[in-house]
Amino acid sequence: MLHFNFDYYRPSSIDEAVELFDKLDQDGKKPIYLSGGTEITTLGRLNQVFTKAVIDVKGIPECNVLDYKQDSVVVVGAALTLTQVWESKILPLLGEACVRIGDRTSRNQITLGGNLASEIIYREAVLPLLLSNSTFVVAGIEGIRQLSVHKIFKEKLRLKRGEFLVQIKVDGKYRKMPFYIEKKRKSERVDYPLITLEALKVDRSIRLAISGLCAFPFRSYEMEKELNNTDISIEERIDRAILRIPAPVISDIRGSREYRIFVLRNTLLDALIYLGGVRA
Amino acid sequence: MKRYRVIGKSVLKKESWDKVSGRVKYIDDHQEVGTLHVKLLTSTYAHAYIGNVDTTEAWKVPGVRAIVTGKDYPLLIGTTIKDRPLLAFDKVRYYGEPIAMVIADTEAIAIQAVTLICVEYKPLRVVNSPVEAYQKDAPLVHDQIEQYLIDQDADTTGTSGGIRPVPGTNIANRQGIRKGNIERGFARSDVIVEEVFSFKQSDHTAIETRCADVEIKKTGEVIIHSASQEPFEMRELISQTFNIDEGKVHVHIPLVGGSFGAKTSVQLEPLAYVASKAVGGRKVRLRNSREEDIVTSPVHIGLHAKVKMGCTRDGKLQAIKLFFLFDGGAYAERAVPVTKAAAFDCTGPYTIDHVWCDSLCMYTNHPYATDFRGFGRTEVAFGVERTIDIMANKLGMCPLEFRLKNAIQPGDTSPTKVLLNKSNLGDIRECLLQLRELIDWDRGQRIDISDRIVRTKGISCTWKNGDPPPGVGAGAILTFNSDGGININCAAIEIGQGTKTVLTQMVAEKMKMDVDDVFIQMEVNTQLSPEHWETAASRTTFLSGNAVLRAVEDAIRQLKRTAAIILKVPVDELEVANKKVYKKTSPSISIDFSEIVYGYIFPDGKVAGTQVVGRGTYMIPGITEMDPVTGRGIQGPEWGVVAQAVEVEFDKRDNTFKLIRAVSVADAGTILNYKGAETQVMGAMNMGLSFATREGFLYDDQGKVLTTQFRSYKVMHYGEQPEYIVRFIENPVKGAPFGSRGLGEHGIMGMPAAVANSLSLAANVSLQQLPLTPEFIWKTRLKAGEVY
Question: Taking every annotated instance into account, which residue ranges of this chain make up the domain Aldehyde oxidase/xanthine dehydrogenase a/b hammerhead (chain B) (predicted)?
């Protein structure tokens, strides 16, 4: 239960939403955009989020797009639930990341945009979007911007005040490429990750993105480079990749730093074997 | 084996359909207009002095009716040692301890106001484990325990009594067992092993969080609605604490949404009473959030155990020396009885002549503990049953053969020196022999599936006597409907264990009538129902069953007496069945219950008999006081025994595992409701596996509990459970209803040890801590040089 009251708005267009935000912000309502609402509930009851107005973007048509035509771009609206994204099979690389988040009941509520914009550190839905060099469509009072994921998602989604995520776009060629995804948890089937690792094979090289290992999800070109160095043994490649982890590895109630690295090592091995060219 | 008509049958629980269709109403489902809501302010420190508690800003929130702080009610309460402030004043002793409360028009307002209360803390050094608590230079959780009162009911030396806190230490109580001569026992041993085992506190995680409503009427009557296992003790505690006539305190308990021991402790009700008082007696509701239910309300105890075992070369156990440091948390409460009971059954079901045990209930700066399914046995069995395996391994013996060889027998004595016979002791050998078949033991304890995957089996044996204090009992009243149907009134609480339904089966069996014609009220009301000792210790069916059976006999006597006059047949020639009284030799001479249950009137106006009201009461005989040093005494009527096995599939590379199969063979005495018994044991097994593999609090170095939500405190999800196999053997107990033994707790007791034995074999290291997470197994193997 949330112990504070707030006004609820459900605009039906992008313009209406951004203008509402601007106005409510000026009125001191500390507005926030809402989509699935799970995080507001989670953090609000712990007093970590407070607002006097929420703007629900689920009524905006652009946020509900799910589109792909032959040889073109996959467009996924930010207000689609993780379940919808997965069930649509429009982009398996993304759907398989979505279906590993939370449990089914939560996924029926959590939206793609909500997961990407989350305050909770995992944001696992970004992994495939980093791997596929996707484009993020964001709306603000100054209009609509289209940016590369690498520009707007650095550790977390870097939106300007008053902006919200409308859609993501991914080149259709990524629909058929081989990929590997594994989420390793402490012991449960439903939990935050120790690590979630997704690897994509493009031509003969491997791309790698990881959540849960550090305090933010990332794609690491340095680690990719080591893994793609086929001159040396697979174990050596993994050892070298581990030396290139871009930030401190976290230790928390789910697992120690050492254990996370142990798990990473095994999962990288499985990924490389799965994506071919390597024997165990 | 005697055959019964209704007993033993899988009669559906009376509340089943309401439960599965979501129609059951728990306390919090009832909303009454005008009820005010209470929210607790809880401590963010585990150990600190409290300075000023500033409520100025909180009072400014519209809708706030009252704010109560610890200083307003500097009372100490408790059902064992009276050491616990209602609301902390002076100092807080655990993270999550209640400090103040706000009473407001809505819960949302109360929460808002609570967040605006400012508390000055002066942090103190934290006692963060029972081992720390035991050190000579440890900070004291309670400075002057010698000044605390001991509850007057706890002044005997039963499981709840004879409590002696040790001044100048963190020891709330010490219970000993001295049987035989421990030195001589070890001297006779060829092989001695000594190991240390531990696990932290954890939670019961009943789905229904604790909740209480209290209203004080203008007449002074106190009306309490609560999710509790002990309405009568609550009534007494409220009456004594606040000096109210017990007759004015009425406790109502509806169906309880799971408990597992959690709701034996009286905590929210006195707080809600004070809250109601602060708002002129208006009805208030105090309900726990999940976080509060996990950390503020009492928890499952933690343990650090040292186990030393001696055995001859040919595998005959000689001696066991046990030293337990239990993590009872900040207040003694029911941790004391748990730690005493742990000592009484400390050896497990084995013949060991020389036993030495000291079971210490330690104060720490952790949440305080209460009963948990198994009541000390689950905890102790983890250490003892792991050591049994370690010993068997050292002797090169099969762990099952080793257990069979040492299984306790009629003619042996318990650690408390009770002479065992076929009635008061279940047959553990028979359980083990059946277990051997069911788990395919002889096909191998360890089977390699591939280079990485190995399948292993681990077993354990446990026993439990219910340990009520001397003098506990129950009562039952039977009334009749005009059609001859029967209503049972007794104060056994339905917490999901199925007692209520079993009682209707007993009445139907004894009355030889249809179970659908026997009714029982789910709600318990202390004003209406005869007193019943708490619904705990797997003793409820035993106590209320005996009372109900006596009430049936009483009703039958009355029915026959009336019928004898009408039918003109002597009483001893009459029999009852199918809601009729009839003549044994010519059953056509009969009269329906419906004609006589409210009395019978002849055409001439003469009366034969009056309304039939069956009355039955029962008190457990033979329970004695328990010696605090030697443990000598009779703690309960009978030992139920169970042999269990767990099969796992272990991945040697990842150190992860799957639970494949879990088996229990329990001595049920007599099965009362087959499906009911099976699912009780199965549910308990699941709870045991969840506890052993996932649960357990994590604290930071300042004693703050880090796992207060289901997203951080993990229990087993549906679908992760292994295949469960439950079988029973039946060796009836004299004096128990239909010869039945307690079963509510037995399924859990051996699970942690069995899964730890299985995984230790699989991982090729000795696992001596819970929970058995893949990371813990990996670390243990790393230390042992098993992995790199």
Answer: 21-125
Both A167 and A240 in one domain: the answer is no
Determine, for residues A253 and B698 on separate chains, whether the beta-carbon distance falls below 8 Å. yes
Q: Write the CB contacts of A143 (distance below 8 Å, at least 6 apart in sequence).
A: none
**CB pair distance less than 8 Å for A47 and B115:** yes
- Residue A54 is assigned to a structural domain of this protein: yes
Q: How would you label B748-763 residue by residue, b for 16+ Cβ within 10 Å and e otherwise?
A: bbbbbbbbbbbbbbbb
A150 and A181, same domain (yes or no)? no
Of A15, A40, A58, the last residue of a domain is A58
Question: Which carries the bigger pLDDT value, residue B31 or residue B198?
Answer: B198
Highest CATH level, class, for B32-126+204-295: alpha beta
Domain count, chain A: 3
What does pTM read for this prediction?
Answer: 0.96
Task: Please report the ipTM that was assigned to this predicted complex.
Answer: 0.96
- C-beta atoms of A186 and B711 within 8 A: no
Looking at beta carbons, which residues of chain A come within 8 Å of B289? Answer: 45
B62 touches A: beta carbon within 8 Å:
no
Closest to B166 (Cα-Cα) out of B130, B142, B198, B131: B142
State pLDDT tens for residues B163-217. Answer: 999 999 999 999 999 999 999 999 999 999 999 999 999 999 999 999 999 999 9
Nearest partner of B541 among B397, B424, B676, B360, judged by Cα:
B676
Check which CATH number belongs to the domain holding A22 and give it: 3.30.43.10
Which of the residues B287, B694, B775 would you substitute to probe the A interface, choosing the one with the greatest number of A C-beta atoms within 10 Å?
B775
Helix axes B399-406, B428-438, angle to 10 degrees: 160
Helices B377-395, B751-763: axis angle to 10 degrees equals 40
CATH architecture classification, B301-408+418-468+623-783 = 2-Layer Sandwich (3.30)
- Cβ(B420)–Cβ(B639) below 8 Å: yes
Which pLDDT belongs to residue B151? Answer: 82
Of B108, B112, B778, the CB nearest to A262: B778
Cβ atoms of B304 and B129 closer than 8 Å: yes
- Whether CATH 3.40.1350.10 fits B16-23+472-619: no
pLDDT in the model for residue B324: 98
Chain B residues in contact with A3 by the CB 8 A cut-off are: 107-109, 111-112, 115
Residue among A253, A256, A266, A267 with most chain B CBs within 10 A, to mutate: A253
Any domain includes A1: no
pLDDT (tens digit per residue) in A239-270: 999 999 999 999 999 999 999 999 999 999 99
